[in-house]
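User: I've been trying to design a sequence by hand for this structure and keep getting stuck. Would you show me what you'd pick, starting by listing the structure so we're on the same page?

Assistant: Good idea, let's start from the same input. This is the structure you sent:
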């Protein structure tokens, strides 16, 4: 399964800057930037805090795709 984070997309649709999200979540701006770009690891608590502050369900912050094996 492939999981792609959509945090930046959701944040921008809501008109929230990365600096504002950083202030609201307490997650440092550079860490949010890493998460939005391409991160291999994100703490579950980070995902929960971001979802809460963006006022969305945690499942709204990612999409999944199944890997097909031949």
């Amino acid at each position: 399964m492939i999981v792609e984070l959509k945090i930046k997309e959701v944040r921008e649709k809501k008109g929230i800057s990365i600096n504002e999200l950083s202030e609201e979540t307490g997650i440092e701006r550079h860490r949010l930037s890493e998460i939005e770009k391409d991160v291999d690891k994100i703490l579950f608590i980070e995902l929960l805090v971001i979802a809460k502050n963006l006022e969305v369900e945690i499942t709204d912050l990612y999409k999944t795709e199944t890997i097909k094996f031949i």
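That's my pick for every position. To get oriented when you compare it with your attempt: The beta strands are 2-5, 62-65. DSSP finds four helices and two strands in the chain.
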